[in-house]
Each structure stands twice: as C-alpha cells, then as structure tokens.
Amino acid sequence: MEILLAVTIGLLYAAGIFLILRRSMVRLIIGLILLGNGANLLIFLLGRISKGKPPIIPEDSKVFTDLYADPIPQALILTAIVISFGLQAYAIILVKRAYRVTKTDDLEEMITTDEL
Amino acid sequence: MQLSGLIITLIFTFISLFILALALPSARVNSRRSALSFLVPFSAFCVFAFATPSTEQVISLWESNSLPFNISFKYDGLAKLFSLLITGIGTLIFLYASAYMKNTKYTQRLLSFLLLFMGAMLGVVLSDNLLVLFLFWELTSISSFFLIGFKNEDDASQKSALQALSITGLGGLAMLGGFILIGEMAQTYSISQMLSHTDLILEHPWFVPALLLILLGAFTKSAQFPFHFWLPGAMKAPTPVSAYLHSATMVKAGVYLLARLNPIFSQSELWFILLTSFGGLTMLYAAFQSLYKTDMKAILAYTTVSALGVMVFLIGMGGEQAIVAVSLFILVHALYKAAFFMLAGTIDHETGTRDIRKLSGLGKSLPILFGIGMLAAWSNGGIPPSIGFVGKDLIYESTLNFQKFSYAPYILTAISWLTNSMLFAAGLLVGYLPFRKSSAPSHPDVHKPSLMLWLPPALLATMGIVFGVFPILVEGSIVNPVATAIAGVSIKTHLVLWHGFNTVLYISLATLSAGLILYLFFQKKTPNWVTVAEKYGPRQALHGIANSFISFSAWFTKTMQNGKLRLYLLVILSVLGSLLGYVVLRETTFVIDPQKLSEITIYEGITVGILITSIFLTLFSGSRLAAVAAMGVVGYTLCIIFVFYSAPDLAMTQFTIDTLTVILFVLVLYRLPRFIRLDFSPRHILDGVVAIGIGALMSIISLEVLHRSPVREISDFYAMNSYLLAKGKNVVNVILVDFRGADTLIEIVVLSIAAIGVYSLLKLRLRKNEKME
C-alpha cells in the first residue's frame, strides 16, 4: 500500500508542477492546490500509516495502552490544510480581480506591472 | 617631544580635520575666512616637525580583545616625512587653492574635501594596524574621486573620476585580500609586530599570493604601468588638487606602502624582480610619453608617473644606497613637482591656457613665475647646487654599485640615465619653454598673479635649492630616519653636494646634455604610434571589460528577468530538482522491505484508483468546470485515505476545506475566460520532463524515508502528556490548541488577514483608469 501511496504522491507533485507551468491562471491555482495535497499526503505517509488506531486516548485510561498513529504529522497537516485554504481563497479572488482589470488570464500577457 | 604630546596632537588633528571637512560646506563663511582653516594643517606641521621619530614606539589609542582591529599609530622616520609633506604642502596648497578658486562656485566644498583627504592620508601614513591603514587608504581614494570630479557638470571629469576610483578601488580590494592573508600568516595585523615575524611570512605557502595582491594595490594607487592611465586622467581636477593629491601625496601612498613593508618583503627574490621591472618600465614609458604632451598638466602627470616608477624601482633594488636615494627622492620630487603644478595652475589662471604651444615669452611679463620655473627645473634636472643633484647622484651611485646579476650596473644605470634625461627635458618644457625669449610674446600684458598664487610654489622651489646647499638640514632629521625605517636596519649616511670628479658626475653631465638635446629637438607633432600606445593600452581593456559587463547585464536581465512567471518557475524548479536529485540519488539505497509494508485491500485500491484517475482528469480536461470538479474529487479521496489511516480530524478538516474551495472556485469561474487551447508544443515536453522528474524524486524520497526507522520521541512526549498535562484525550487537538496554542493563534491571524484581503478585493471598486474599456 505504501508503494501505491508513494506513487500517488509523485503523481500529485508532477501534476501540480505541470499545471503551475501553464499559461492559464486558473490552471496555476489548481496546480497549487494539487501541490498542497501532495505535500500533505507526503507528510502523512512519512509519519507511517496504521489502520484503526487514531491518536485518541481511550475513555477509561489516562495514557495510551495500545499502539497509536503519530499525532504530529496530523497536527502539521491540519494546520497546512487550513493555511492553504487561506492562500487558495485569496488567489482565486485575486485571479478574478486581475481578470476584470486586464481582461486576460494569460500569464504570458501579464509580464509588466506598468502596462495596465 | 613627549609621546603624550604627540598623541594629543594626533587626536586633535584628526578630529579637527574631519569636523572642518564636514562643517565647511554648510558654514556661511566666505572663502577667505574658510581659508583660515589652513591653521590646522599648519599647526600639525609644526608639531610633526619638532617631534622626534621613533622606530620602536607604538602609540595605542584603542585595543580590542576580540577584533584584530587595534587603533594604533607609529611615528617613525617614514611617517614623519610623509606627515610633513602632507601637512606642509597641504598648508601651502590650502593658501594657494583659496586664491586660485576665489571666484568659482563651491570653493568651500573643495577645501572641505581637501581637509578630508588630509586627515585620511595622515591616517594612512601613521597607522600601525594594516586594517586601519586600509580604511584610511580607501578614504583617500574616495576623497580623490570627489576632487577629480569636482567640476561635476563636466562629462570628462565624471569619467576620469570614475576611472580613477575603479582602478584604485579594485587595487584596494586586492590589497585588502593581501592584508588579510599576511595578517593570518603573521597572526597579527600590527605592522611593527609583523617585522619580528618575517620568517613566518616568508616561508608560508600563501606568501606569493599575498605579495601579488598587495603589490596590485600599491601599483594601482601609485599609477604603475599598466595601471598608470588613471593619473593623467585625474588631471581633470582643479590644479591645486592635482598638485597635492596627484603628485605630492596620495599617489605616493603606494610607494609608502612598499617602503613600509620593505623590511618584510625585501628578502624575497620576487619582490626585487617585480618592483624593479614594473618600476623600470613605468619610469621609462611615462617619461617618454611626457615628451609628447603639450598640456603642461599632462606633461607633469606623466613625469609624476615616471617619478613614481623611479621610487618603486629604487625600493625594489634595495641596498643601503638605493634606500637612501629613495628617501631623498620622495622629498625632492614632492618639492619640485608641487611647485611645477602650482606654476602651471598660476599660468593657466592668468593666461587662460596651459598649452605650451600657445605660450611664449612669458619671462618678461611674469618674471617671478619664470624664476620659480627655473628653480624647479633646476632641482628636477639635478643641476648643482639643488637638492635634486644630491638625489640624482645617489640614484646613480646605487645603480652603479648594484651587483645582483651580471651587467646589472650597466643596465640599471642606462635605464636611469634615459629616464632622467627625458625627465629633465620634460621639466624644461614646463619650466623654461613658456618663458623663453620670443619675438612675439603670446601674452605681453598679462595680469600679475596675486601673492598667494606665487608665494607657495616659490617657497617650495627655493627650498629645493636651500636643501641642496645645506643638505645637513635634511640629513639627520629626515633622510636617515626614513632610510632606517625603509631598510629596517639603522642607516646613517652623510649627504654631500660635491663628490669631486667621478663616474657619477660624468653620468650626471651626460644626463644633462642628453636632456638638453631632447629638449632642443622636441617636436610638437606627436607621432601616431605614441598616442596609439596610450589609447589601445590597458585603458581600452578596462573600458572594454566595463562595457561588456554592462551589455552582459542587459542581456541577462532581458533573458532571465523577462517578466514571464513560467520561466522563473521553470528555472527555479529545474535547479531545485537537479540539486535534490543529486543528493537523493547519491544517498538512496533503493531497498524496499516488503515486511514493513502493509497489504493493499480492495477498498484501498479502488480509492487510490479514483484518486489517480481524477488527477489525470484535472490535468487533461479541456473544461474548467470538469477540472475543478476533478480537483475536488482528489480532495475527497484524500479525505477517505485519512479516514482509513486513523486520522479522523484530518478527514473532517479536509472535507470542509475542499468543499469550500470548490464552491468558491465555481462561484468565480463563470467570470473567467475559457482555457486557452494550445497545440502540443516542445514546451509541454520540457515542462513534463521537469514535472515528472520532480514527482519521481518525491516518490523515491518517501519510499526511502519509509525504509528507515521512524523517530517518535516528540510524538511519544505529546501522547504521554496529552491527558496528564493538558487534560485532553484527542492528542492532535491538544497539540493544536494547547501545546502549540500560540502557533494556532498566529494561524488564525493569517487566515484573518487572508479573509480581509479577499473581502477588500471583492469590495474594491475599480478606478476609472483601471477599467480598460
């Protein structure tokens, strides 16, 4: 399973990079989102995966008695998801705004700041 | 004089020089009053004149325990000679400049830069610490830059100033490198302490690079061939500046440095070879060039370069006689050359030209200047009873007695003889030719110069004769201490004017007659090849390098900074990918242990299958909506994967956020244009290769990390203490809101900022000029 996930990570990265290299700004944002997903999955996988052992202490005890999934990658990814949402929302609105001003979403045409 | 008195004078001089330099331009005083600030260099001159130099004593002002940066001064013979030149000639130049610049704008600015320079130059010659010396050295270059470019509206002045700064600045940089090397070799930056570690330096493997770097600094500053061309260019400065900086003091800083370091380096064969060859070449070449110049200042500039060559040559030769000769020659040259320069300035001031072809018969209208010119030419030519005669005798004596290699006396004497003859002829061109009797004087009714325009050069020129008649005046007070400092061993010599009829005298006579012949056959037409040599020399190379650097930068900016985001990204990603790839592929073991891996169940397989399919859909869909929807599916399948592998919190967050993103996207999507349909191009292949390369790397990295055993210390700490310390059972939540609560707070701030940004972008009304209707 890990091999499959590793391949998926590679695919997410490759797709993300390919998309941010495109001329369309919409694709750029989709690429960024895919890259973010890839990074999250990477961190998750590196924390090792285990089934049915969430990092939650059982009701009747004060410490873990059984094995448990690594909580740190989860905390990191949780933060990352939320932060990347901020980034994505801002980027999406910015694209919309930029399009209204420049009438293009082609990055090749937006090469100077002065020629508005 | 007591040492403490000297310290007080030093501090006082530095502070008042720099304060005056700062205050003068803004002060509301007329130039005559500001000329009174000559009192500062003059009083310093008096103190320096009466202070007894000491080779051992180091005056330490400030010492640092951690930095190699002790501010300490040394007042030995060499420092004394230069201090006297700087303050003495400085005082005269100050008086002269106030008269010379009387009716020009910014006189105060000029005087203030002169003061700044004076302070910096004193720092150079008095510092005992190499790094402090370097600081002052650069300060002289900078003040020289401002003084050369004094006529700041003149294009040629600007160019010359930049040229001088770039040459001396480059040399300075090299020199700093040399200083650091030598400082590390000797484990000290104090010059006087280095003298006792000479063997450490000489035997060190860094010795040759250090020597070369330091020589580069000294040669550029003292305008040695092939770096000499900045000095004639520097003649764009007002004449008092040329007289002071570019003949009497600053350009001798390089010579000073060589003299100062001579005790360390003189045992090296390389030192001898480089100094004599560069010095010899410079003195011959520049003296020859000077004969073909018609501007008085240009002639003087080239003879100055030549004289600097003589000094370097003599230091390189070494030996007692050469050292004594150079000690005296520095003084002799400063006296007559400053007089010459001021003379040229005064003639220019009164007649409006410095071209010797346009000047004739001035002897009748300007008799005082004629007298000064003759006296200076006298000393320059080494005609008895001037001090120049004593100096020239010493030079010939040292070359004649030089026995380092066969034929050395003949070769070295011949070079010196040629140079001196040409210098003598050049001196006559400046000091005699404009005044020569003429049937049609060029300026018969010329205005007589005011007192301050002729008294300073007259004083200097007269001193040349007085010292010649009474060499005892400079023997004990200057020449012996200077020679001692340069040689590093005690030298006691006796200067005499008349040696009787010997070989030296005959060579001197031969010099004079050769000079006279050169002068008489002097042609005002310059042969083509003489100018070509100057034009296509190193100056051209420097300009070529500078220009090609500019065009390279223009090309580079245009190509790399072309505003196309994709190119930047591609470059960054390729560099990142190749660096990462290099490290990863070198370290990776490529071992996959099946034991450690979990099996693939059907539901897992299907989920990942959906995930991969939707990635491809996102990639290749031609419709925006389909791409966004596929992207949403990627998010949801990730969400399911989080559920599978014990991360319920992640799954919830991912689900919420993914939904929000897709909704937001779809909301704005209908306002955006459709995807641009482009044909398949090589660019796609390139991007694809980079993308797949980095993607593959990430896969390899994750597999490699999985192969190694995990580190779970921190995780265990949180897991152990989650309930005990923070009273929470969901460890992930406890980490976020308790252990790392501050981070989460900052994250909320970031989100709020993003929200404010989104809100204001949505509400922002376009100004008229932004609506491209």
SSE topology sketch:
The complex is a heterodimer of chains A (116) and B (773).
Chain A: H1 2-20, H2 25-46, H3 71-102
Helix pairs in contact in A: 1-2, 2-3
Chain B: H1 3-23, H2 31-34, H3 39-50, E1 58-62, E2 71-74, H4 77-100, H5 107-126, H6 130-148, H7 155-186, H8 191-194, H9 198-202, H10 207-221, H11 230-233, H12 239-248, H13 252-265, H14 269-290, H15 296-317, H16 320-351, H17 362-365, H18 367-381, H19 387-400, H20 408-431, H21 451-469, H22 472-487, H23 503-520, H24 528-535, H25 538-560, H26 565-587, H27 602-620, H28 624-644, H29 648-669, H30 682-707, H31 713-726, H32 731-739, H33 741-763
Antiparallel strand pairs in B: 1-2
What key attributes describe this structure?
heterodimer, A: 116 residues, mainly alpha, Helix Hairpins, 3 helices, B: 773 residues, Four Helix Bundle (Hemerythrin (Met), subunit A), 2 strands, 1% strand, elongated
In short:
The complex is a heterodimer of chains A (116) and B (773). Chain A contains three helices and no strands. Chain A is mainly α and 116 residues long.
Can you offer a commentary on this structure?
The complex is a heterodimer of chains A (116) and B (773). Helix content of chain A is 63%, strand content 0%. With 116 residues, chain A is mainly alpha-helical. Chain A has one domain: Helix Hairpins (Orthogonal Bundle), CATH 1.10.287.3510. The radius of gyration of chain A is 20 Å and the shape is elongated. Chain A starts with a helix and ends in a 14-residue tail after the last helix. Chain B is mainly α. Among the domains of chain B are: 266-526, no CATH class; 562-722, Four Helix Bundle (Hemerythrin (Met), subunit A) (Up-down Bundle), CATH 1.20.120; 723-773, no CATH class. Chain B is built from 33 helices and 2 strands. A two-stranded antiparallel sheet of chain B has the order 1-2. In chain B, helix 5 (107-126) runs antiparallel to helix 6. The model of chain B has no long low-confidence stretch (mean pLDDT 84). The chains are: A mainly alpha (116), B mainly alpha (773). The interface between A and B is large, with 94 and 105 residues.
